[in-house]
Amino acid sequence: MSSSEEDSKIDLLDSASSVKKKLKKAFCEPGNTADNGVLSFCKYVIFPVALKGEDFVVERAQENGGNSNYKEFESLEADFGAEKVHPGDLKASVEKYLNRLLEPVRKYFDTPELKKLTAKAYPPPAKAPPSGGKKGGNAAAQPATDELIPSRLNMKVGKIVEVSKHPDSDKLYVEKIDLGEPTPRTIVSGLVDYVPLEGMQDRMVVVLCNLKPAKMRGVESAGMVLCGSREDPKEVEPLAVPEGSQPGDKVFVESYEIGEPDEVLNPKKKVWDKISVDFKVSSEGVAQWQSNQLMTSRGQVTCHGVKNAPIR
User: Fold this and answer.
1) How confident is the model at residue 2 (pLDDT cuts 50, 70, 90)?
2) In angstroms, rounded to a whole number, what is the distance separating the alpha carbons of residues 239 and 302?
3) How far is CA 35 from CA 11, 41, 47, in A?
């Protein structure tokens, strides 16, 4: 975690995913307290600035010894030197406190004016055009990042304003969904066996909007209604949005609010398939990605009918 190394330097506007990536790369040898950037970060940033009188908690599963609390940096340093604290557990704890420290800064800069100012002050390096490629043309826009993070997903609150059975399938609904766009989108969903027709009409749902449009039994679908989905026993229920949500409201994963979604998720790279592996409904019925909650500005996204299940 050196300021001279771009891959490990922590910036005030780093996203939660960038913090995780940089901490993962940071040198943190077991028992090494003399040359350890993560420990130094604890000493000079986390303990004096981020804790605000709290204990520093290293969280561990019970079978690995359970949590350890530290009031002073010296006690943490001694336990790390004695290899009582694993580097992975230390990094996970630093990540938690560091993101909590940075989050107010991220939110402050999450306005169009300040984003524009930041982009001018710290312009991204220009990307070289692919070798052999043609200039101009109708090439698809490149994603802002190759990281598999949920900020690449364009998720919105939608209202089903019209729904009917698919003309060529007993398992599919064809929905017109208001997403706050000039016209409703047509989306096809395999929910006939799980939600009655009257339960779909006027329902508020979460829609993944930047999938590549695809035909389903001859009807083009321009998105996907996200659902809690269990295979055994087979249960499916659309995610529920917080009360007061409106069509077009942004749906995001906490700590990943900042970042531009891909224009279209690349189906060849299976971006959605890889990111969706970590989406689930918790035992409390809360929609999550890697334990971070799925949110709108009005609160949590939930699914109380299908708990402890993947989101698809």
Assistant:
1) very low
2) 6
3) 21, 12, 18
